[in-house]
Amino acid sequence: MSDEEHHFESKADADASKTFTQKAGTIRKNGYIVIKGRPCKVIEVSTSKTGKHGHAKCHFVAIDIFNGKKLEDIVPSSHNCDVPHVNRTDYQLIDTSEDGFVSLLTENGNTKDDLKLPTDENLLTQIKSGSEEGKDLVVSVMTAMGEEQICALKDIGPKN
């Protein structure tokens, strides 16, 4: 044995914790799936019959949960698919900044300042106008595969 010390740097990202596997045949409409490396919500599933070459196939039509793009994939129903861990968290909106970021209040009283304003025009307008009117707003933040984005807004009344 040599006395040399070996240091290995891992170049791999810990994607394993961002997704889990599930048989393609068990994924249903309104579930989630990873297509082309993007977390998506399934809007349509159709399954073909078993053909002369073996497996029944599942045809997934899904919408990327962050950019709204439509993606499709065909997978044999007995094969595994990656499914993203998707979480929704509500935060109280404190402020919006000129550079496109929001300041949010977390459950433990800290602030979260690293989240950008949503790209959805309707949601963006609601947040800006509600903030200007001095309303108490709660935003829902969706997190999946290392990305997060504001996806919904609730008005909980005027600020006191």
UniProtKB/TrEMBL annotation:
Instruction: Name the GO terms of the biological process aspect.
Output: positive regulation of translational elongation; positive regulation of translational termination
Q: What are the protein's UniProt keywords?
A: Hypusine, Initiation factor, Protein biosynthesis
Note the PROSITE patterns from the entry.
IF5A_HYPUSINE
Which residues constitute the signal peptide according to the record?
Answer: none
Modification after translation is described as: eIF-5A seems to be the only eukaryotic protein to have a hypusine residue which is a post-translational modification of a lysine by the addition of a butylamino group.
Q: Where is the Translation initiation factor 5A C-terminal domain?
A: 85-154
Q: What InterPro entries does its record include?
A: IF5A-like, IF5A-like_N, IF5A_C, NA-bd_OB-fold, Rib_uL2_dom2, Trans_elong_IF5A_hypusine_site, Translation_prot_SH3-like_sf
Write out the GO MF terms.
Answer: ribosome binding; RNA binding; translation elongation factor activity; translation initiation factor activity
Q: What does this protein do?
A: Translation factor that promotes translation elongation and termination, particularly upon ribosome stalling at specific amino acid sequence contexts. Binds between the exit (E) and peptidyl (P) site of the ribosome and promotes rescue of stalled ribosome: specifically required for efficient translation of polyproline-containing peptides as well as other motifs that stall the ribosome. Acts as a ribosome quality control (RQC) cofactor by joining the RQC complex to facilitate peptidyl transfer during CAT tailing step. Translation factor that promotes translation elongation and termination, particularly upon ribosome stalling at specific amino acid sequence contexts. Binds between the exit (E) and peptidyl (P) site of the ribosome and promotes rescue of stalled ribosome: specifically required for efficient translation of polyproline-containing peptides as well as other motifs that stall the ribosome. Acts as ribosome quality control (RQC) cofactor by joining the RQC complex to facilitate peptidyl transfer during CAT tailing step.
The entry assigns this protein to a family as follows:
Belongs to the eIF-5A family.
User: Any idea what this protein is called?
Assistant: Eukaryotic translation initiation factor 5A
Which lineage do the record's taxonomy fields give for this organism?
A: Eukaryota, Viridiplantae, Streptophyta, Embryophyta, Tracheophyta
